[in-house]
Amino acid sequence: MERYARLGASDVRAAAMPFSAYDDKRSRGRALIVGGSAKYHGAPVLCAISALRIGAGYAKLLVPSIIINPVRALSPNIIVGELGHSRIAYGKAALSEIERCDAMAIGMGIGNGEAAAGAAGRLIGAAAEAGKNVIVDADAIYALKRLKCAGNARKRIIATPNGPEFERLCKRRLGSIGLEGKVELASQCARELGITVVLKGHSTVVTDGRRTKVCTPKSSALATMGTGDVLAGMICGLCARGAGAFEAAGAGVYLHCAIGDMLERIEGNHAIATDAIDLIPSVIKDFDKIIH
Fold it and tell me: What CA–CA distance (Å, rounded) separates 132 from 153?
């Protein structure tokens, strides 16, 4: 018997917070995205635009100053601020933005340097302790092992590792253990760290150690660079709108899988990450609830 449930439309309904006819950009939720480096400047932009597309009203992106101009040139839809010079840094500017945001995503494109990981760990802890849900992606995931924050704060953290990132974080080999084995390992990792884990793969596992859900798309259309940044942004946007950590993660994964299946029909196996962003409204708009 399966020890998990399958993600479905009901998971999206559980995470889709209602809109009001009187909303403004701030009442619809403020997403903060921290990422980027001299080598990777596109990843945090994909994340920020995805947060807006899923329904957040406001997105602020903090990147190292060395890439601020090329990042600003990529999209007029986001506000871009400086955080550090050649890599992200911890400081008053970031803490001030954390206070103002409703949810934060961190890690996209920061690179694997020790200094960036250290800054990411301090920012994750500060955001979680401040009561903000935090989506931790890419190289920021490695900061979670040494994270210092209370158990209640940890419940606000959503880690989104791919296979190699999961193995390095939890020191467990995935190999060819199959879906049941991945469910067990992801659940153990979530319990040990006290967080929600989204173990990405063809079948993606979402677990907080108590509840576990799985989504398996019909295609591999999203097996291309940048689509993980899109997923992180979708989850961040749902959290900024008011969804809980586990609920936002499950809804984001289900919608991400639906986008992949839509792209396979449209683009075959030739889609890119921005194609996925463009389809976010198509998969979420039918779940919108409007309060007049």
Answer: 9
**185 vs 6: CA distance, rounded Å:** 17
Where along the chain do its domains lie? 25-154, 218-228+245-284
Determine the topology of domain 25-154 in CATH.
UDP-N-acetylmuramoyl-L-alanine:D-glutamate ligase (3.40.1190)
Count of beta carbons in the 10 Å neighbourhood of residue 240: 30
Q: Comparing C-alpha atoms, which of 246, 179, 185 is closest to residue 214?
A: 179
User: Which letter does DSSP use for residue 222 in this model?
Assistant: T
What is the identity of the amino acid at 263?
L
Question: What's the chain's length in residues?
Answer: 292
Three-state DSSP class for 231? helix
Amino acid identity at 188: Q
Quick: pLDDT tens for 217-253: 999 999 999 999 999 999 999 999 999 999 999 999 9
Q: Provide the 10 A C-beta neighbour count for residue 42.
A: 19
pLDDT confidence of 2, banded at 50, 70, 90? low
Q: For residue range 10-39, what is the model confidence (pLDDT) as tens digits?
A: 999 999 999 999 999 999 999 999 999 999
Distance CA 178, CA 97 (A): 41
Does the predicted model carry a pTM greater than 0.85?
yes
Task: Give me the numbers of helices (H) and strands (E) for the chain, helices first please.
Answer: 11, 12
DSSP 8-state symbol, 172: -
